[in-house]
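Posting for a labmate who doesn't have an account.
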Amino acid sequence: MPKFFVPKENIHGNTIVINSGDVSHITRVLRMGIGDTLLLCDGKGFDYNAEIIETNSKEVICRITEARKSSTEPNIEVILFQGLPKASKMEYIIQKTTELGISRIVPCKLSRCVVKLENSKAELKKTERWQKIAESAAKQSGRGIVPDIAPVASIDAAIAQLKECDIAFAPYECEEMQSLKAVLTSVEKPSKIGFIIGPEGGFDISEIEKLRAAGIKTVTLGKRILRTETAGEAVLAMTMYEKGDINA
């Protein structure tokens, strides 16, 4: 059954109104009409079986036949703080971590980031595009939420948010002692986990010192050094296996 996201405010009692670009896809591409059924999601964790009761060029109006909590969401919130990478790498990171169950992605301006967003307008434009990529990946993978793509943060802002997590860590190629497993198992039932990934050039030593001073542990991912676009999805998969729902 085709699945589409609708804003919470488009749900009125037993009726859901679709008035986004999905209208054309539903009526022209899928050629769906009155009596056909859709799977709709409010992007906040609830799914709705719905029957189309009216269509026009701007709207598809549906009647809810069943409402339920989404069964595809992990039992923990995981936040990725990602040092801004080059070109399309950020899009890849958003796609793959969305598929694996990320809750939120915070792009970070770090010392060794090659990408420089010129101004707030360029930053907003990028964030809006990234949000659309997250929605598309969430739709494809059957997610019950669309991960939030946050505004670009500094290292200090990232640290402040990481400190709010039950478990927070930074994979670091120079760390040799502290394993990811040891950090993940340090709290039995965390509700929120956050981790920060450096850009292509890695973390600057001053950033590592700031992270450690704030109580955010550095961890080793083993003897091989991962690319920035590989590290986030690898860590998320391991985190979901250890604490989420992959091993359910």
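Reply:
Got it, the structure tokens are right above this. Residues 120-141 form the longest helix (22 residues).
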